[in-house]
Amino acid sequence: MKQFLLRLVILAGISFLPTVSNAQLREKAEELLSTTLGNDPEEPVTPTDTLSLDEQHRKDSIKMQELALQLQEMKLNEILLKDELESTKNSNATADSLKRSEQRNRIDSLRALTPGVPVVVEGDTLFHLYAKRGGRTPVDRAEDILNIMVKIGTSHSLKKDSIYIYDSEYVTDIMYGDKVILSITDQDALWQNLSRIALAEQYQPIIQNKIQELREQHSILQIAKRVLLFILVIIIQYFLFKLTNYLFKKLRRKIIWLKQNRLRSITIRDYEFLNTHRQGRVLMFFTNVIRWIVLLIQLTISVPILFAIFPQTEDLALKIFSYLLEPVKMIFKSVASYIPNLFIILVIYYCIKYIVKGIQYIANEIESENLKISGFYPDWAQPTFNIIRFLLYAFMIAMIYPYLPGSDSGVFQGISVFVGLIITNCILMGRLEAFALGNGPWESFLDGIGNGLGYAIILIIVGFFRELLGSGTLLGFQVIPQAFYDLGYVNNGLMILPPMALIVIAVIIWVHRAKNKELQEN
């Protein structure tokens, strides 16, 4: 009976332990119970009649006191474990708070420099993402959100109330059914200075309204309206084509009537520059050009409108419109940016023009012997003027060259070289062909050899002086000693410019004619 009472006391003490006690304490109590009260069923029980009643009572009292002490010890251990757990929890909370504060400070410093990735759906910016989630960058997350929202919005089984918030320990999800639209992490909340659940509640109506809008846009009624609008635009464009062609047909008839009744020939000093037939053809040509321009403008307006009717092709409409608009903008910007250079070219041209006129006036005065220069014959006036005029125009080209559009590009410079070669080749071929038309094969062959050798000699002479005076080298080897440069000699940078080749050729012609009097013009 007493053993039964002891078992009840032990069980009552264990039952009064809190349910949150440590598992080790429970195991300790069970072990104590088994060692104290549990007897091996195989061991024979000592008969109570072998011990006196007082001794048995004393032993039971001692065991109960031991059990009470052990229960108190277990409760004390439980209190200590609770305190340790509470301190660990507080330290973890403090560490998390410090870490969160450090992250918030770092995000505050980056917020002004980081624009964020916008989540754009059908041209509307819903919100911005700043943080990664797992291996997905903000750009990837924005694209995922766009795809899932478009997929949900274009489905015809959308239920408006099916978008809800699901909060877990680490993330807060905005979901539709079993599909996650957006997962909000602690980092996302820190970027917005909100809690996860508050940020989710802020984003939920935005996402819900946009998905509802997508559903309305992709409803059968809206699709039918877009198809009707598409057909209407095509019909309007068709009638515009018909109207344009009709108006220009009337304009052509008017031009024919004007050619037959009103137009008169345009004459310049007894020369019939444009007769009535040619004037009619010119007017017809410009009429056709204007008609095609009008039709092109109509297409430029109508085609983007047709593509903009459907959301799937709206971006394509903007691209087509930009393809048509960008060349026009580029042309206007290029012309506007070139206007300062154009003024510089005009100033250079008019300066050289009036300088040439002044020199021509002096040459005319010398030729008419109104102005006499000692040692300079009047017959030299016009040849000298022609040479000086050529040099001035060459100098003008050299000055204008850097201000030409695209003159600093490698393509322009390469083409300018080939243009010179083509022109030179055409001059030589024209000269050789003209000689060959009036002479036999052998004479034409010798003429070609002579022209080729003469042209090669001229190129060698021109290259010799340009490289020597322009760079101080010949075939890349230094010719002018360094001592000359130490004394103040400077290479003539003008010699390496293309126009100086023409000036050197002019000097060669001048020297050649000065030595051979029979080549001089009378």
Question: Which strand order spans the largest sheet, edge to edge or round the barrel?
Answer: 3-4-5
Distance between the termini: 160 Å
Q: Tell me the β content.
A: 5-15%
User: Any low-confidence stretches, pLDDT <50, length ≥5?
Assistant: 1-6, 14-22, 36-51
Class of secondary structure makeup = mainly alpha
Percent range of helical residues:
55-70%
Mean pLDDT: 78
Order of helices and strands: HHHEEHEEEHHHEEHHHHHEEHH
Q: What is the 3D shape?
A: elongated
* SS field, number of helical segments: 14
What is the gyration radius calculated from CA atoms? 51 Å
Q: What composes the largest sheet?
A: 3 strands, antiparallel
What is the β-strand count? 9
Descriptive overview:
The chain has 522 residues and is mainly α. The chain has 14 helices and nine strands. The strands form four sheets. Strands 3-4-5 form a three-stranded antiparallel sheet. A two-stranded antiparallel sheet has the order 1-2. It has a two-stranded antiparallel sheet with strand order 6-7. Strand 6 (266-268) and strand 7 form a beta hairpin. Helix 7 packs antiparallel against helix 8 (276-308) and helix 11 packs antiparallel against helix 12 (441-471). The longest helix is centred in the N-terminal third of the chain and has 59 residues, at 53-111. The relative contact order is 0.03. Residues 1-6, 14-22 and 36-51 have low confidence and may be disordered.
